[in-house]
Amino acid sequence: MPWIQLKINTQAENAEQIGDMLSANGAQAVTFTDAKDTPMYEPKPGEVMLWPDTQVVGLYDAEFNMKRVIAQLEKSKILGKGFYHKLDQLEDKDWEREWMDNFHPIQFGKRLWICPSWRDIPDPNAVNVMLDPGLAFGTGTHPTTSLCLQWLDSLSLDDRSVVDFGCGSGILGIAALKLGAASVVGIDIDPQALLASKDNANRNNVADKISVYLPKDQPDMQADVVLANILAGPLRELREVISDYCKPGGLLVLSGILATQAEEINQLYSADFEMEPIAIEGEWARVSGKKK
């Protein structure tokens, strides 16, 4: 179905209130975007950060009476009569199909390919991970996942045990299994991620080698390899938990880290690990090391 976007530029302190007004006036979804390309960094737990100049975008059915919406918004003290706004018609597309059409097989390192489950395999002799992300994060297209997959491809994983902390779609753990790992434990706070991981494990014929858990059910164990592609905040707060999953002499890889945060995370984990050089891809970083 066709849609209309109503875009309003405002100051950060007014953005959430304007977003609430759009929702109250029929918006199907409201998003906040940077109006002046101001960089944003990871918020503290529980903190909502918005740009100094924020664009509030409301999504409406194309048949919706937008003149009435504008008239209602003009009554507010924040916006007022004749406030500046822009209406954009969105092309009527099957957005899920659009995304699927643009997700292609990608190679990581020398051996590993991530292949959408609906596309043909480019190299049948490669290590191919067939992936359908579903509702969980992780396709390999983001630099944080790419950095971890390249690291995995560089290792000899034969018969090693793996913990995938924040498993998402299961992409990292399944890649480890396809590269020779003996077993994977996947942990995530999102039940949808656990379902996606199991579905993708079935798709890759490794379901018997992977177990998935919510944090409250996570097992007491240690593994040869620990993967954590999450965010810098949780990596700081959960350092002891993540470190304890790794055996002495085991390997650790961390990502979901901005390049500007990498040195801090590297120093934090150096208490328990002999750290490797930080790897950078664009604005993102990978930190890795060996347990002392």
From TrEMBL:
Species in which this protein is naturally found: Aliiglaciecola lipolytica E3
EC number annotated for this UniProt entry: 2.1.1.-
Name of the protein: Ribosomal protein L11 methyltransferase
Function: Methylates ribosomal protein L11.
Location(s), subcellular: Cytoplasm
List of residues binding S-adenosyl-L-methionine: 145, 166, 188, 229
Annotated InterPro entries: Ribosomal_L11_MeTrfase_PrmA, Ribosomal_PrmA_MeTrfase, SAM-dependent_MTases_sf
PANTHER family according to UniProt: ELECTRON TRANSFER FLAVOPROTEIN BETA SUBUNIT LYSINE METHYLTRANSFERASE
Originating gene: prmA
Pfam families documented for this protein: PrmA
Gene Ontology terms for molecular function: protein-lysine N-methyltransferase activity
Class of this enzyme: transferase
Reaction(s) this enzyme catalyzes, per UniProt: L-lysyl-[protein] + 3 S-adenosyl-L-methionine = N(6),N(6),N(6)-trimethyl-L-lysyl-[protein] + 3 S-adenosyl-L-homocysteine + 3 H(+)
Alphabetically ordered keywords of this record: Cytoplasm, Methyltransferase, Ribonucleoprotein, Ribosomal protein, S-adenosyl-L-methionine, Transferase
GO biological process: methylation
GO cellular component term of the entry, any: cytosol
Bilayer-crossing regions: none
Similarity-based family: Belongs to the methyltransferase superfamily. PrmA family.
Major place of residence: cytoplasm
